[in-house]
Design goal:
Number of helices: 3
CATH class: Alpha Beta
Radius of gyration: 13 Å
Helix content: 10-25%
Strand content: 15-25%
Order of helices and strands: EHEHEEHE
Structural class: alpha+beta
Oligomer: single chain
Number of strands: 5
Strand order of the largest sheet: 2-1-5-3-4
Number of domains: 1
Length: about 100
């Protein structure tokens, strides 16, 4: 079975929590899916458990979005295959903190 080295770009607050220097980490997974990447990320950085996904349901937290190749994939199933450019390391999987606010 092939293994994939997926680049993951995390928002500043999660990098700080996990003591990660730089803008991204490299995660090795057997299946190139968002779910597998998040499983591996939480395994390598246990302090991130519950920050990206809910502990019980494993659903994405409301104020985080996932992007791959400039496309919002936040609503895709967790077992959907990541795009070729992410699988082969040309592009990162981006975890982005959503911006919320109201009208001034």
């Amino acid at each position: 079975m092939a293994e994939y080295r997926i680049r993951v770009e995390l928002p500043h607050h999660l990098r700080t929590l996990a003591s990660i220097s730089g803008h991204e980490v490299s995660i090795l997974v057997a299946q190139p899916t968002v779910g597998a990447v998040l499983d591996a990320l939480e395994s390598e950085y246990p302090m991130l458990c519950g920050t990206i996904r809910d502990h019980g349901t494993l659903q994405r937290r409301a104020f985080l979005r996932f992007f791959a190749c400039m496309q919002d994939i936040s609503l895709e199933p967790a077992d959907a295959t990541l795009p070729d450019a992410v699988r082969d390391g040309r592009e990162p999987l981006i975890v982005l903190g959503a911006v919320a606010g109201g009208v001034l």
